[in-house]
Design a protein that fits this description.
eight-stranded parallel barrel, about 25% strand, 12 helices, TIM Barrel, five-stranded antiparallel beta sheet, Immunoglobulin-like, alpha/beta
Length: about 450
Amino acid sequence: MKIVKFLIINLFILSITIFLAGCGENTPPVGGGDPDEYTMEEAIDYVNKLFPTYVIEDIELPTTIEGTTTTITWSSNREELINREGKVTRGYEFETVRLTARIRLNGKTETVRNEVTVIPMESPLPKNKKLVFAYNYVGGQGFDQIPAHKIDVMNYAFAYLKNGKIDFSTIRHAEQIIRLRERGTKVVISLGGGGSSGGFSQAVSTTNGRKALIDSIIEGVKKYHFSGVDVDWEYPGSGPDALPNDKENFTLFLTELKAELVKVDPNLLLTAALGIDPTIVKNLDVPAISQVLDYAHLMTYDFVTANTENEQHLTNLYSSPMQGNYSVQNAVNHYNSLGMPLEKIVIGATFYGRQRSFYSDGTKSTYTSISYTEIKEKYLSNPDLITYYFDEAAQAPYLRNDNLFITFDDPRSIKAKCEFVKERDLAGIMFWQYNQDQTGELLDTIYINIR
């Protein structure tokens, strides 16, 4: 009896095995089901999904659909840009290509056409003009309203570091990145940012760590068609996560990142937002990074922070009794003395200010941020509320009354910075950040005076 049961069980197992093996022999077609039942509608749907909206590298144009009797013949109206095998050749302008797929199935023929945009190679920024770099901190929102002719490079802030890689899942309004580029402004992805730079030290501390980080950056640049990368690590050698070799590893990271960017496109930009306090600058190998960076964005602002004791300037061009520690001029001179060429230096302006209140008991508040839009509408347009002062030595404005102090940039101080850029033959000027001036007058001041 036991022998019979044993034979029955083994025969059952054998039959199940044969059944499962047979199921794996006949791979179902893309559309599912019997190959002879695959329909033209399914084939057309499959082919339509092959068309990308934008391309920067070769695309797959299959001539058959696996598991079916379908054949596809491809043609292109611009073979020099995308040929029938899917090879992509990029130029220096946005170009539209019409791809045509001729589908044959079960004696029937259908034609599917679609337009694909070839993203151009990056053209180099002109060397014979002073450049304007902007930061945008609202995820690309409003890019369609930006006056592209007034801004050379828009920094999309930010993509953040997560588990040793850059997380691009926060990128929004991706379509507007392309549209702004089509109108002539380069769009660069800015990585990290103040308060969000934790993890950089660890990520760049090993060869494998740098490779993983750089691979993630390159993937995002290609996916979202950015014009380059701006590294905003605040700051190597500083903070609780800092490591002893941050200085060397930052240089290695920038060097290796630049090499990978060049492989994608020789004209992709690599810039970095750099602190200007001497305790921060000492943790940078300025001669080495100057060889790698296209431009150095000196963060010549936030000379006043939340807990600054006295009433001082936020972003003064020159030193004065109201700000003796920092100035744009001092920062430029310091970096240049360490080996950063003047033609790579970009100075900073602010489209915001910092304000503090004075109380009746003699105490005062910490500094808080205020947009230029609010400063203009609430105070500059109502001179009876507060007095406007301009520190001639510092070339910096401020507002003050018995209850309030505000330090900021205005058209007068920004004009002085533009003149300084031209006098010192610097690369240009940048500002943080675009959406904080809804009046448009600060950008207009830059546009008029930087040329």
